[in-house]
Write a structure and sequence with these properties.
By secondary structure, this protein is α+β, with helices and mostly antiparallel strands. The chain is built from ten helices and four strands.
C-alpha cells in the first residue's frame, strides 16, 4: 500500500511543480513520515487498502463513488493475484491449485466492469493463466468478459521490450466495449544494451544483513540517464 501512496504523492507534486520534495525523500533527506505529512490527506484517500470480497465490495464501491463523483470511468487496469495460475505455485500444491478459490477472483474484477462500464480495461497476469486447469479458467474468463459487453484481445508482452531491465513475460489482455472503435496496439521493442548489473553498479558490495547508505563515486551511462529522467519529472 505504501507504494501506491507514494505514487499518488509523486503525481500530486508533479502536477504542482514541487518534485524537489520527492527528490529529498528519495535521497533520504527526509523520512517517509515527514514526506507524507506534506501531502494533503485527500490525495491518500484515493488508495483503498481492503480485501475484495462479497462483504467488502459495497463499501469499496461507496468509497470509489465518493472520489469519482459521477464522472464516467474511461479505463480500469488491474488483475487478480497470480498464485493459483502460476506454474511454480501449482507445482507446489499436491492438487495443482485446482481447488484454490483464487482461481475465480477474476469474477470480482468483472463486477467492477459491470458496475462502472469503462470504455476499456487492461487485465494483466502470468503466463500460467493460459494453462491453468488445462486452459479451462482462461476460456471461461474470456467468455465472461464478452458476456459483460466487451470485445477482447491479448498478447504476451515482455517487460524488457519496454525499457525495463528484466526479462519478464506477462499476458496483457485488453477489453473494449462493443461500441468503442479500438484494436490492440502494435508495440515496438525498445533497444538497449543495459543489464541489471548496470542498474546496481553504483551500490557498494555488502554481505547479508549489512547496511550502507554510501554510493560509489561514479555512475555509469544507464544510471545517468535514470537520474536525468527523474530530475525532469519523467518518473
Amino acid at each position: 500500500m505504501l507504494n501506491f501512496k507514494t505514487r499518488q504523492a509523486y503525481y500530486f507534486l508533479k502536477r504542482n511543480k514541487k518534485l524537489e520534495l520527492y527528490r529529498e525523500y528519495l535521497s533520504g533527506c527526509i523520512s517517509r513520515e515527514q514526506f507524507y505529512a506534506q501531502i494533503p490527506n485527500r490525495i491518500f484517500k484515493r488508495v483503498i487498502n481492503k480485501e475484495i470480497n462479497e462483504l467488502t465490495l459495497p463499501s469499496i464501491f461507496g468509497e470509489i463513488d465518493k472520489i469519482r463523483k459521477d464522472r464516467e470511468v474511461d479505463i480500469i487496469i488491474g488483475g487478480p493475484p497470480c498464485q493459483a495460475y502460476s506454474v511454480i505455485g501449482r507445482s507446489r500444491d499436491p492438487k495443482g491449485m485446482k481447488y484454490d478459490k483464487r482461481n475465480y477472483l477474476y469474477k470480482d474484477y468483472i463486477k467492477f466492469l459491470n458496475k462502472y462500464s469503462p470504455k476499456l480495461f487492461v487485465f494483466e497476469n502470468v503466463l500460467g493463466l493460459l494453462s491453468a486447469q488445462k486452459g479451462k479458467i482462461f476460456t471461461n474468463m474470456k467468455k465472461e468478459f464478452k458476456q459483460s459487453g466487451y470485445n477482447i484481445d491479448y498478447k504476451i508482452l515482455n517487460a524488457k521490450d519496454f525499457g525495463v531491465l528484466e526479462d519478464r513475460k506477462r499476458i496483457i489482455l485488453i477489453g473494449w466495449r462493443e461500441e468503442v472503435n479500438f484494436k490492440y496496439p502494435e508495440f515496438h521493442a525498445v533497444e538497449n544494451n543495459y543489464t541489471i548489473r548496470d542498474l546496481f553498479s553504483d551500490l557498494p558490495f555488502i554481505k547479508s544483513g549489512e547496511y550502507s547508505t554510501e554510493y560509489k563515486e561514479r555512475s555509469n551511462e544507464c544510471l545517468q540517464i535514470c537520474i536525468l529522467e527523474i530530475k525532469n519529472g519523467m518518473y
